[in-house]
Design goal:
2 domains, seven-stranded mixed sheet, Aspartate Aminotransferase, domain 1, Aspartate Aminotransferase, domain 2, 40% helix, alpha/beta
C-alpha cells in the first residue's frame, strides 16, 4: 500500500471536536453530561436569516458564485467593518470563505514559503489550528506565551525578543480563545509601534469574537494608522449570529484579496451561495436577536465566573470577551492528586459528568503557569448552575 505523507500523518487537530465525540458517545450510552467543551452558541440562527436563505433558494441562487463571494455580501462586510471598526474597505478588499478557518491556511500560504525558514508568531495557549497549519505549510512556529500575571496578555519585551528578519506573520486573536482576553487599543498601538521595525511582517488578526466584548469597546489593530495595509482582518458569522453550521467567514486585506480568491478557486471554488445570501441578511437585517444573544453571554460570563471562584482550589479571571473562561486549577489538582489539566478533565467527565477542555489541548502548557482548563459558557444559565453544583460535589468527595 502506498505511504501517506508526513505532513498528513502529523497534522494537528481541534480537540474540542475530539472531546465532543467523546461526550456524544457517553450521552448515547445514557449518561447525563453537562458540557462546557464546545465553542458553539446554543441559540438557533435568527429567523430572518433563515428566511433569507429560503428566499435565495426560491430565487434560484443555488449555483456557483465568484470565488471571492457575491458582490452584495462583500459590500455588506465592508459596510459592517466601517460601522464596527471605523476602517474603510472597498468591497473588492473582502474575500468570503466556507467559515473563517480557511483563511488561516490561505494567509500562511500567501505570506510564507515552504522550507524557507519563515517564522510565524502565534499565541499560546491558543486556537490549536494556528500551530498545526503553520507546520503543515512548512513555516517555523514560534509560540508567544500568554501569561496569567499579564491577565493572559503577552509581554511586549518577549514579543520584541522573538521578532527578527525571518518573521513573516504575527497572529493575534482578540477576544481570545481560550482565555477570553481582549486587547485594548493602547495595547494594540504598542504592538503596532514595535512592528514598524519589521516591514516584512504581516499581521493576522482573528476577530471572530469581536461582537462579544463584555466590558468596554472592541479594538482592531487594523484601525491603527498604517496597519490595515499589512493586516489580514478575519471575522465571520458563526459566533455572532449562531451560524456555526452555515460555514461563513470573511477576510479583509486589499493586497491579499486577489490571492485569497485564487486560493478559493483552487480549494472550494466558492462559499455556499445560499449561505452567502443568508450572510447578507445577517449583516444588514434586524439586529435585535443578535444583540439579545450577546447580552446573554455577558450574563453567563458573570454567573460562571462568580460560581467558579466559590469552588475550593480553583480561581479564575473574568474574561473580557468571547464565551470562554480559563480557570487556574493548580491548587485543585494538588488537593485531589491529579497531575495535569488533562487528567482533571477526564476525571470530571467520567466521575462528575461535566465536560471541559484541558490546557494541553491549546498547545504545550506555558512553563510556570500551572494547570488550567477551559469552560465554554455558550450554554444555558441552568446548565451552568447544574455543572457548578456537580463540580462542588466532586471536589468535596475527591478531597477525601
Amino acid at each position: 500500500m502506498p505511504s501517506v505523507s508526513h505532513r498528513t500523518q502529523n497534522l494537528g487537530t481541534e480537540h474540542a471536536f475530539v472531546v465532543l465525540a467523546e461526550v456524544n458517545k457517553l450521552i448515547a450510552e445514557g449518561r447525563d453530561i453537562r458540557s462546557f467543551a464546545i465553542g458553539q452558541p446554543d441559540f438557533v440562527t435568527p429567523g430572518n436569516i433563515i428566511e433569507a436563505a429560503k428566499r435565495a433558494m426560491d430565487a434560484g441562487h443555488t449555483g456557483y458564485t465568484a470565488s471571492a463571494g457575491i458582490p452584495e455580501l462583500r459590500r455588506a462586510v465592508a459596510d459592517y467593518l466601517l460601522r464596527s471598526r471605523d476602517i474603510g474597505y472597498d468591497a473588492e478588499d473582502i474575500t468570503v470563505a466556507n467559515g473563517a478557518k480557511p483563511f488561516i491556511l490561505y494567509t500562511l500560504m500567501a505570506v510564507t514559503d515552504h522550507g524557507a525558514g519563515h517564522e510565524v508568531l502565534y499565541p499560546t495557549p491558543g486556537f490549536p489550528i494556528y500551530e498545526s497549519q503553520i507546520i503543515a505549510c512548512g513555516a517555523v512556529p514560534v509560540p508567544l506565551p500568554l501569561v496569567e500575571r499579564e491577565a493572559f496578555g503577552f509581554d511586549l519585551e518577549v514579543l520584541k525578543a522573538k521578532l527578527n528578519p525571518r518573521t513573516r506573520l504575527l497572529m493575534l486573536n482578540s477576544p481570545h480563545n481560550p482565555t477570553g482576553r481582549t486587547l485594548t487599543r493602547e495595547e494594540l498601538a504598542a504592538v503596532a509601534d514595535v512592528l514598524r521595525d519589521y516591514p516584512e511582517c504581516w499581521v493576522f488578526s482573528d476577530e471572530v469574537y469581536s461582537a462579544m466584548v463584555h466590558d468596554g469597546a472592541f479594538a482592531s489593530i487594523a484601525s491603527l494608522p498604517g496597519m490595515a495595509e499589512r493586516t489580514v482582518l478575519l471575522d465571520g458569522a458563526s459566533k455572532s449570529y449562531a451560524m456555526t453550521g452555515w460555514r461563513l467567514g470573511y477576510a479583509a486585506n486589499r493586497a491579499l484579496a486577489p490571492y485569497f480568491s485564487s486560493w478559493m478557486t483552487n480549494t472550494d471554488s466558492c462559499a455556499g451561495s445560499i449561505t452567502q445570501w443568508a450572510g447578507v441578511e445577517a449583516l444588514t437585517g434586524p439586529q435585535e436577536e443578535h444583540l439579545r444573544m450577546m447580552e446573554s453571554f455577558t450574563r453567563r460570563r458573570n454567573l460562571i465566573c462568580e460560581g467558579l471562584n466559590t469552588l475550593e482550589g480553583l480561581h479564575t479571571l473574568r474574561p473580557g470577551g468571547a464565551f470562554y473562561v480559563w480557570p487556574n486549577v493548580s491548587e485543585l489538582c494538588a488537593m485531589t492528586g491529579v497531575d495535569s489539566g488533562e487528567a482533571l478533565r477526564k476525571r470530571w467527565l467520567y466521575e462528575a459528568n461535566v465536560a471541559v477542555l484541558a490546557d494541553s489541548q491549546f498547545g504545550t502548557p506555558v512553563p510556570g503557569e500551572g494547570h488550567h482548563v477551559r469552560f465554554s459558557y455558550a450554554t444555558s444559565e441552568e446548565n451552568i448552575e447544574q455543572g457548578l453544583e456537580r463540580l462542588r460535589k466532586w471536589i468535596r468527595e475527591a478531597k477525601g
